[in-house]
Each structure stands twice: as C-alpha cells, then as structure tokens.
Amino acid sequence: MTALWQCQGVTSTSTAGAVRQGSLRELNLAVVLRRIAAADRPPSRAGIAAGTGLTRATVSAVVDDLIAGRLVAEAEPAPRTGAGRPARGLVLASDGPAGLGLEVNVDYLAACVVDLTGTVRHHLVRRADLRPVSPADALERLAALAAEARAAAVRDGLTLAGAALAVPGLVDSGGLVRLAPNLGWRDVDVPALLAGHPLAEPVEGIPPLVVDNEANLAALGELHAGPPGSTSFLHITGEIGIGAGIVLDGVLYRGARGWSGEIGHIPVQPQGRPCRCGGQGCLERYAGQEAVLAAAGLAGADLPADTAATRLADLARAGDPATLTALADAGTALGVAVAGVVNLLDLDTVVLGGGYAPLAPWLRPPVVAEISRRVLTAAWSPVTVRPAALGARSAAVGGAASVVRRVVDRPVGWLARSG
Amino acid sequence: MTALWQCQGVTSTSTAGAVRQGSLRELNLAVVLRRIAAADRPPSRAGIAAGTGLTRATVSAVVDDLIAGRLVAEAEPAPRTGAGRPARGLVLASDGPAGLGLEVNVDYLAACVVDLTGTVRHHLVRRADLRPVSPADALERLAALAAEARAAAVRDGLTLAGAALAVPGLVDSGGLVRLAPNLGWRDVDVPALLAGHPLAEPVEGIPPLVVDNEANLAALGELHAGPPGSTSFLHITGEIGIGAGIVLDGVLYRGARGWSGEIGHIPVQPQGRPCRCGGQGCLERYAGQEAVLAAAGLAGADLPADTAATRLADLARAGDPATLTALADAGTALGVAVAGVVNLLDLDTVVLGGGYAPLAPWLRPPVVAEISRRVLTAAWSPVTVRPAALGARSAAVGGAASVVRRVVDRPVGWLARSG
DNA sequence: GCAATTTGTTCAGTGGTTGAATTAAATGAC
DNA sequence: GTCATTTAATTCAACCACTGAACAAATTGC
Predict the structure, then answer these.
(1) How far apart are alpha carbons B79 and B89 in whole angstroms?
(2) Does domain B23-80+88-92 fall into CATH 1.10.10.10?
(3) pLDDT per residue over A272-303, tens digit each?
(4) pLDDT at B374 over 90
C-alpha cells in the first residue's frame, strides 16, 4: 500500500480517463450513489433507472453492491406513492464510512466526524493558545483529539475512510505547510509529523490525510451545509488574515498551484496603507481583524482571536459608535473587493464566514451597497450575501465532508476494501 | 432534429453521466482521439495502448472507427524508432470536420475556418463601420461572409461541424445578445436573425451556432494557439471596454450566468472617476481605450477602434512623452487589478490581448511591477505576462477552435452523422 | 539468413448492460 | 371480497465491447 499524502483533489489517474471493462461498473456505482445522495427524498430503484437512463436491472444490480458494501440502506417506512407496488426507498447508510475533519487554529484544535448522510456525528474542540507551542507538539495534541474522535466513531459502528486537516496558511501539494503566519509555522511537514498516528483506515483511492487551507475547507463545508442551489460562491473567512474559498459550479477551485483565495491582498486603496505583504492598500489592512479592532478603539486589547468577533458584535449591538463606524468602513472595503470579484467571476452568492459570520448584520449592508453600485449585472440578477451556515465549525466539517464526498464520488475504492 | 441554439458549453446530458453499454465505446473514442490530438509526434496504436491502459486490441478497434469516420489518418512517412516492426503514426485528419469562427465587431466582420489539426485554413475579414448598421443588416453581411468561408472550406473537402460567433457584449445563454454597448445592440436575438442562413452541417451534439462573448472566445483562441503548459490564465481584451476570459485548468470559466470576465469594472480607485456603470474608479476609466487616448492627448480624435492601439504604439515608439506616461499609468492601473485577480485565482499566466497586444512592450513593465509588489506568491513562482499569440484574430480563431474541440471531446456525435 | 523485437490483428472468453418476461405488492372498482 | 390495474423489483438469455493470448507482419542487428 503506497501512502498517498496529498493536498489537492488531484485524482491523477495516469490512464487519463480510459474506460476499461470494469470501469463500467465503477462509474455506474458512482452515478447511482450520487443520485441517492443528491435526492431530497429516498429514491426507488425504478426512479433512479428512469432518471439515469440505466435499466432497472442494472440499477438493481448496482444497488445490491452498494447495500452489500454498507454504503446504502433501504429506508424502512417506504414512502407512499399511489397505486402499484410500493417502492423501497434508498438512503445513504449511516453506519458505513465516515470522514474525519481536523483543524489547527490559533486558539483551538478541532476534530469532527461526518457520516455518509452528511450528519455531523461528533465534534470535539479543545481551546488552547497554540502560538507558543511547537508544530510537533501541536500536532501531537491534535492526534490525541483525533484518536478520541475516532474512538467515538468506532463506537457508532462507523469506519473512518480518510482525514482532512485545515490549517490557516499556505499549503503545498504534499501537505507541506509553507507558511502559517498566525501560528508561526513555516515549512512544517504535517504528514511526516503525523505519520506515527494512524487517523483513518486505509481505503484505496482516498488519501489517509489531506492537508488544506482553512478557507478552502470552510468553503467546502458551506457547500455541504448551505442551502442547495448555490453552486458558485465565494466563501470569505475573516480572521487576522482574510482568506477565501472559491466554489465554481460545485467544485472547489484551488488555483494553478493550490494557492488561490488570497482575497486579503486584493488592493482596495492602491495608494493606501502599506501592508506586510509588501503591497499597499490591501483589503486586509481595512477589513482584517486588526484593522477593525483598531478602528473600534480596541487596539492592543490582545483578545483571543475567536472572541474578537463576538466582542465586536456585542459592542455593535450595544450601539457603540466607534464600532459601528469601524464595521461600516470594513464592510465598504470588503464590498469593493467583493464587487471586483463578482464582476470577474459572475458569482451568485457571497458567504461571510469565519469571524465575519457573527458580524454579518453590520457588514452585510455596506457589502450589498457596494455590490449593487459596482456590479454590472446586479440589476439583472441579484447577488445573495449571507452569513456562513456553519460559522466557525465550517473548516473541520468541510474537511470531513470532503472525505465523505470522495467516497460518494468513487465508491469502488471503499467497496474494494472489505472484499 | 431539434435545433440547439446555445451560448454556454453546457452539454446537459439529462442522463447525468450514467454509463450505458455503448457509452463505453463512446468514451474510449474520445480518450483515444484526445490522445492523438495532444501528442506532439504522431503516436502509434501500441503507444496509445500503453499510455491509456487499454489493450492494443481495443485501441486498434477504436482507431479503425476513427479512421473510417475521417477523424484520424495514418501519417505516411512512418516515424522511425529502432528495432521491431515500424509503427504507423496517427494524426488528426485534415479533411474531416472543421469549425467556423465568426466575429462581429465595431469596425469589422471576420470569419475563419479551423480544421481538426488546429490549422487556420481560411481567414476572411471585411472592414466596415458597423455602428450605424442595424443588427439585422450586420448579421446579413456576416452571413454572406460566412457563406464565402464555407464555400472555401467545402472546396478543401472540409465539413463545417458547427459555428461560434464572437460578440463584444453580454450574451445570454440561448444566444440573445443582452447588451453590446459599442455596437449599439440591445436584446438582439442572433440565432433568430441568422436562422435563414445555414452556417454548418447538423452534427449531433454540436450546436449549429454558439454565440459568446468576444473575450471568452479570444481566451479560447489563446488556449488553442498559445504555448502548451499554461492551462490557467487570464486573457485580457483591451478595447473600448475591457473584457477578460478566464481559463482555469484548461477550461473556460463562464460564471454562474455566463457573464464572467467583466474585469473592466473592478475598482482600482474606489473614490476615483465615476464610470458609466454607476460605480466609481473602475479599471476601464484608467486603462480603457478612451482613457488612454485622452491621457495621450488624442481625445476626440475619433480613430477607428482598431487603429487606436497601433496609433498609440507608433507614438510610443517615437518616444512621445504624453503617450508614454499614459501607457505607464494605464499599465499600473491594469497591474493593480490583475494583481488582485492573481491573488484570488492563483494564475500562472496573464495574456494581454485585443488592443493591448500591440501595446504590450509598454504595458508589460508596470503590470509586472504591480504583480511582483502585490502578489503574495510571486516570490515563490513567477507570473508570466505576455502578449496574445493571435492578436486581433483571437476571437474568431478561438470560436472556430471551440467547435473543433467539441468534436474531439465527443467524437461519437460526428461519427453518427455519416452513418 | 536468422534471431530478436516491436507493431498490429485475430479470436475465444468474459464482465456488465439490455430488454423482455416474470414475480411481487399495493390500490381501486364493482 | 375478488379481480383488474398499476407500479416495483428480479430473473435470464442475448449482446456489446473490452481482455488476454496467440499469431502474423515488418524491421533491426548479428
């Protein structure tokens, strides 16, 4: 078994899409499983056959395989239709494979387990200031938390099919964390440091550990938990830095080298404040956590990172004028940057996540105002701006969901496992 | 036969990827054909088998079908290898299907024919000021030019499998031109107006006419003609408006509604000059043709649109200080916007196209300067900024190439045609 | 001239889909 | 309460396209 450490979603089949004899079944397993996953009510075999164009015979055979592999179960209270033999509804199994989502952040560690149906079965958080901790120690503690989550999953009869770790920084393909400024990490080889701690069962085709940018996985979490229908959106994670996950047509876009989403350094005032990146007038200097805290008169308060947002929200709710102005200005800067992005990418939804989620009531109006002023097509069809459905849990949940999604997209790897 | 007018590349198979018996062959036809198309020297059947993982027997059978359908031919001077029976090289046929690319622009009409190998076989241009002409008349003249191109293609033994029309404006799916400000078009139903003029043979799976934004098709042209390897890039078409085509991982990204690429209205000076879009400080007001001409002291010269760029280039070459300053400023504004885009999308290449292509010697330095100042990852891996390989012909060639690409991606539609 | 080598084809075998017939399980009319 | 009707799911022979091995073809090198 070759360990497959990787960052991106590259499925690099060297055979480049050639369809061999067995691929036929492999592909149809995925088609049927996806159909069951996407349906809003448990579909019948016949319904799947009608929807996909496959024969009922084929669907039956495929479903048999899926049930035998504990990926699908029959919903017992059969959904009533009308005349005729009642259909047996098919649902994703809730006792089969599951995904493990992990997160290392400035002041907490998180681990969560998501099953095939998308339900968050467990969610563990350990608060701790990780800035003074060495990467090796931080990952050691993460591994302990992961083991706890895994034990809980096993008690439920679940099998972890893979893990995904969210890190607030630039991650190389291969899982090398190039730079995580707020953690103080540089060139940390996460897979190597976690090598002694098995996180998940080996499943063919699913990497045992994927390391990815926090903003990317948070966007996946939002894709997973958010309202259906929005398949192209920008998920903005507002923390000390500002990151964005870009989901286009339902798939996360990672960029040529996996470093997309650096929305924090979009220029919003080209001759404005100098930024640590070397540029000038970057969004981060106007809508980043430090800038907002300073404008609200809380500079140097040295709040834990995740309480800064709730503190600002409290002040805003209380009507503190400095805070309200600070949020309005930040929202305007954010709106300018977002308007540019929407003009460029023609997105229909913008999600305010991370620290922006609790501040959405105050950030949303100026963002919406800038969008409607500046986006050419806003008149034809409006852009939705909404807070993240999952809030701070997005990244860990998104990571776990990305594992589950891998199983759904290519179930044959899982089925090959247990014979 | 249902006419399939469409704008986007939506292949909306209602069966959602289900793999039926025959799809096996269908998919492998595409795999093998793509392999032949992508190879830099004519591959052998055995080489394709080794590369794809298919059996030599299967590849032979597939190739037989492709040759019978005039999509592939055997290269006669067989490429020498070493010992063993010499391989028979396979190349794309140059007498099979071809694509028709059309363009309506402010002061010219164009039609071009690209064959399967990607060679531009014919390229016709009619210069004419189309602003005073009604859409119906303009399209009538375009149809005449298209008929000419088609006749030339038929004389070569080619069969036009589809057509793509580039328009400088917002195009709805369905081919409705919502707004083409510089042509003075609004809600022009192009497919309806061209309905009387058959442009191409009906081929299953290929729409007889695709209408798309000029910038999008120009980006496809660049993908087609540019150096291989750059699969994620931004192609900027600088005219009166500024448009961009976004190619991500080798596929054109069109946005949720098909209106992506409005880079001209990215804010570069949020409190700057008011723009006709209603916003303020849009890129177009600093790097658009009118802005540059005005800054160079040529305001109101009323030059034909396509000569403005060459005129500016002449002045710059002659060392005219006003022009040099104007271009430097435009380049800086462009660089600010592009830096934001590159930070967001992690692109490795930026192509200066349209009117920017001849001005690249003067625009490139400030653009590169802003990128290296402002792009976070520029230090790790540089961003290439280069002029468009095709220049003004990009859009028509790109349209024609997009038709050809459709045939390569799904050859079964073409093969079903001639029995 | 002959062994070695590689390409391409032929052919029986097989996996997985197909389509029709069959069985299963309900509703509704009389 | 029985039976025609309706829809769901399964069974089975047929078939299509890929597989693997054997074979024929064409060239190099000794």
Answers:
(1) 7
(2) yes
(3) 999 988 889 999 999 999 999 999 998 876 67
(4) yes
Matching fold, domains B97-219+395-417 and B227-388: yes
Residue nearest to nucleotide C17 (CA to C1'): B21
Query: Given phi > 0 = left and psi -120 to 50 = alpha, else beta, which region is A175?
Result: left
A56 sits within 7 Å of strand C by its CB: yes
CB distance B102 to B407 below 8 Å: no
Write down the CATH superfamily of domain B97-219+395-417: ATPase, nucleotide binding domain (3.30.420.40)
Per residue in B211-261, pLDDT (tens digit) is: 999 999 999 999 998 887 778 999 999 988 899 999 998 899 999 888 899
| Chain A residue with the nearest C-alpha to that of B35 | A16
Residue ranges of the domains in chain B? 23-80+88-92, 97-219+395-417, 227-388
Rounded, the Å distance between the CA of B66 and C1' of C1 is 40
**Mean pLDDT in residue range A185-214:** 94
What DSSP string runs through A265-330?
GSBSSTTS-B-TTS-BSBTHHHHSHHHHHHHTT-TT----HHHHHHHHHHHHHTT-HHHHHHHHHH
Residue type, B21: Q
Higher pLDDT, B181 or B317: B317
pLDDT tens digits, A142-191: 999 999 999 999 999 999 999 999 999 889 888 999 989 889 999 999 99
Nearest alpha-carbon partner for B7 in B155, B167, B212: B212
* 3-class secondary structure, A183: coil
B-chain residues near A366 (CB < 8 A): none
Per residue in A230-276, pLDDT (tens digit) is: 789 999 999 888 999 999 988 999 998 888 999 999 999 999 999 98
Please name the residues in contact with B281: beta carbons below 8 A apart, sequence gap of 6 or more. Answer: B267, B268, B269, B270, B271, B272, B273, B275
Q: Is residue B13 pLDDT above 50, yes or no? A: no
Helices first, then strands: H and E counts in chain B: 13, 15
**pLDDT for the residue A3:** 33
Phi, psi of A89 (to 5 degrees): -70, 145
Closest by Cα among A19, A245, A217, A248 to A101: A217
Q: Report the length, in residues, of chain A.
A: 419
**Domain spanning B227-388: CATH superfamily:** ATPase, nucleotide binding domain (3.30.420.40)
Q: How confident is the model at residue B278 (pLDDT cuts 50, 70, 90)?
A: confident
* Coil vs helix vs strand at A23: helix
The CATH fold of domain A25-76: Arc Repressor Mutant, subunit A (1.10.10)
Interatomic CA distance for residues A325 and A106, integer angstroms: 27
Find out whether A172 and A7 touch, Cβ atoms under 8 Å.
yes
Residues 2-61 of B with CB under 7 A from strand C: 19-21, 44-47, 56-57, 60-61
Q: Say if the Cβ atoms of A17 and B35 lie within 8 Å.
A: no
